[in-house]
Inverse folding.
């Protein structure tokens, strides 16, 4: 049996990775370490194979707890745990710097002390900033790191901390930088699940600015397959950009959701823009394709349909979140914006 240690495995992408690994790799057992913040949810792990998956509740910034939870003989740490929402980082950056930077350092130290063979850092395309509209520029692995939001700055800093652990202490590291994920179990603060939930409830759909910002969307399982390949085949010290060559303007994403849910476009409200809103993300995934032998398997049309089906079939999951603390978040983030829009 191969042992791996996953942080943030009760979140959106981490839980998809847990499922994929358990399904596709019978010789792997997982310790899943997650603090269960507002974004972590044990319901995301319902039905996973309990014999090969052990959940430990803990904070990645807590050195002692990390050392206690990390088994001897662990082959790799996959660091998914993070504060992940740009809008929250604009309101308050502290928790982003703590978890995303200090937490990554704690995990790197633990990896070194316990002789973990490889450290996989789940980073993001946002560390590379924003590309101009209508250009043929793409993010490559040699694009400069020029983050624009506090979230992106904390993820870029985490990459530097990972680099330093390798250069200084010889920790074997690989970094993946993926674009915008979508799929089942994404917390409904993010664009696609927020719009699906609002559309299903006949509530207005708040689109920032002119709605023409571009994101490069990838189905979550395709991202997870790339992470696994980066662990197996990635060269030590390298970063790999992961993307499905699927650039979409936000307004078109929102219209596609309304069409699929069968609701009118009149629900769309253009609202005050996000501060420092990155205009366009677009990823050149050639390095991952050639070096890792990765390519996406799910088309945008299939993935979006599957995602909407999941939210339709799991309204309890959505309502449980929307009835809690999320209401306060939503009112603070969107209340004034929506009042101005009407
Ligand atoms: P998420 O917010 O859904 O989940 C984050 C998880 O981390 C939660 O389960 C939370 O409880 C846990 N966590 C947060 N702080 C913690 C701490 N201090 N200690 C332990 N656990 C903690 O995020 P996600 O969308 O699944 O993103 C996962 C990773 O992928 C993040 O590192 C993010 O930066 C990266 N990423 C996300 C996207 C995307 O589109 N969502 C794209 C590229 C990269
Ligand atoms: O209500 C909204 N209205 C709106 O127009 C929300 C929540 C978003 N948007 C816009 C902002 C972005 O242009 O939609 C786009 C996508 O927004 P988010 O879902 O917040 O994602 P983004 O800011 O692009 O960051 C995401 O991709 C990279 C993830 O949240 C990050 O974790 C990841 O690293």
């Amino acid at each position: 049996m191969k042992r791996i240690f996953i942080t943030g495995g009760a979140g959106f992408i981490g839980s998809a990775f847990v499922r994929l690994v358990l399904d596709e790799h019978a010789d792997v057992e997982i310790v899943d370490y997650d603090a269960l913040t507002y974004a972590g949810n044990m319901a995301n792990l319902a039905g996973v194979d309990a014999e090969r998956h052990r959940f430990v509740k803990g904070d990645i910034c807590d050195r002692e707890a990390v050392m206690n939870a990390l088994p001897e003989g662990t082959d790799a740490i996959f660091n998914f745990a993070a504060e992940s929402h740009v809008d929250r980082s604009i309101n308050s950056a502290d928790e982003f710097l703590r978890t995303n930077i200090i937490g990554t350092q704690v995990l790197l130290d633990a990896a070194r002390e316990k002789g973990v063979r490889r450290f996989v850092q789940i980073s993001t395309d946002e560390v590379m900033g924003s590309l101009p509209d209508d250009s043929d520029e793409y993010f490559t692995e040699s694009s400069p790191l020029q983050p624009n939001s506090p979230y992106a700055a904390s993820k870029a800093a985490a990459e530097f901390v990972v680099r330093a652990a390798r250069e200084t202490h010889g920790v074997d590291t690989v970094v993946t930088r993926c674009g915008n994920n979508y799929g089942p179990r994404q917390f409904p603060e993010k664009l696609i699940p927020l719009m699906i939930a609002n559309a299903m409830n006949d509530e207005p759909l708040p689109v920032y600015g002119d709605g023409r910002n571009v994101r490069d969307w990838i189905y979550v399982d395709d991202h997870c397959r790339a992470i696994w390949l980066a662990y197996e085949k990635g060269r030590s010290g390298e970063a790999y950009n992961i993307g499905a060559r699927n650039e979409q303007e936000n307004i078109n994403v929102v219209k596609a959701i309304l069409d699929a849910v069968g609701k009118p476009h009149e629900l769309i409200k253009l609202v005050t823009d996000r501060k420092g809103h990155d205009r366009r993300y677009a990823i050149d995934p050639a390095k991952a394709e050639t070096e890792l032998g990765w390519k996406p398997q799910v088309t945008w049309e299939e993935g979006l349909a599957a995602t909407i089906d999941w939210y339709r079939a799991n309204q309890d999951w959505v309502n449980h979140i929307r009835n809690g603390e999320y209401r306060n978040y939503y009112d603070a983030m969107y209340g004034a914006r929506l009042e101005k829009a009407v």
Summary: Residues 123 and 159 are 7 Å apart (CA to CA). Residues 7-8, 10-14, 34-37, 39-40, 59-61, 80-84, 99, 103, 122, 124, 155, 178, 180-181, 187 surround nicotinamide-adenine-dinucleotide (ligand 1) (CB under 6 Å).
